[in-house]
Design goal:
The protein is α+β, with helices and mostly antiparallel strands. The chain has 4 helices and 9 strands. It has a 5-stranded antiparallel β-sheet with strand order 5-8-7-6-9, covered by helices on one side. A hairpin with an 8-residue loop joins strand 7 and strand 8.
């Protein structure tokens, strides 16, 4: 009996698509850039330190009184003249705390005050001038009419009448008026200094008339406050 021929199973050929689908996925190697990580950490630390420094500066600032506008010498301060600002001032720098702004209202400018300038106690005078029974007279003085050390508030002075340039030297004691220095202005471009003095009301008109001639000199007889 003749055996039936055997059938040989031919191998199945895989399609290209199935080979690609069945191929294992290989993740690309991760390259850790350590220097980038270190740089990021350094930037974060620097930002944190910078923020802390800024906060420290803010905390160190104090609110103080400053000028909101120019105030001429001798004018009484109003609330519109003053404002408050925050500054990090050195402890040796004289300032007026912001909470004392209203205390400065009504004070008199003892010198020309300028916008943005920090106010100090030394730049103002609480006393309203002239005092009762006194006259306030302005002396316009050249450097040659006052002592080289200058004048200070509180100085007791004699305003002496002089013969003027080319005049004869008096043989008798020249007339004079006693006064107290109330304020001293800043010299102008010509070196002229305006000084306010208080004198008894009986002498005020006499002194003003002598000042108008320009023939006066100031003699300090008693020093005032430093």
């Amino acid at each position: 009996m003749t055996a039936a021929p055997s059938r040989t199973r031919s191998p199945r050929t895989a399609s290209p698509e199935s080979e690609i689908a069945s191929a294992p996925t290989i993740a690309p190697p991760v390259r850790r850039r350590k220097w980038l990580i270190a740089l990021g950490a350094a930037l974060v630390a620097t930002s944190a330190l910078g923020g802390a420094a800024v906060l420290g500066l803010v905390d160190d600032r104090e609110q103080v009184v400053a000028l909101a506008r120019d105030v001429p010498f001798g004018q009484t301060l109003t609330s519109q003249d003053l404002t408050t600002v925050r500054v990090a001032a050195d402890p040796v720098v004289a300032t007026v705390p912001g909470e004392r702004l209203q205390d400065m209202v009504g004070q008199v400018a003892g010198a020309p005050l300028h916008t943005g300038e920090l106010l100090t106690e030394a730049k103002v005078d609480a006393e309203q001038l002239p005092a009762a029974g006194q006259h306030l007279v302005a002396l316009s003085l050249r450097p040659s009419q006052i002592p080289a050390q200058g004048l200070r508030v509180g100085d007791i002075v004699q305003v002496v009448s002089t013969p003027g340039e080319g005049g004869e030297v008096p043989t008798e004691l020249p007339p004079s008026v006693t006064a107290t220095v109330a304020r001293v202005g800043e010299p102008d471009v010509d070196g002229i200094t305006v000084v306010d003095v208080q004198t008894p009301a009986t002498d005020g008109p006499v002194l003003a008339a002598r000042v108008a001639t320009g023939r006066i000199a100031v003699v300090v007889t008693s020093p005032g406050e430093s």
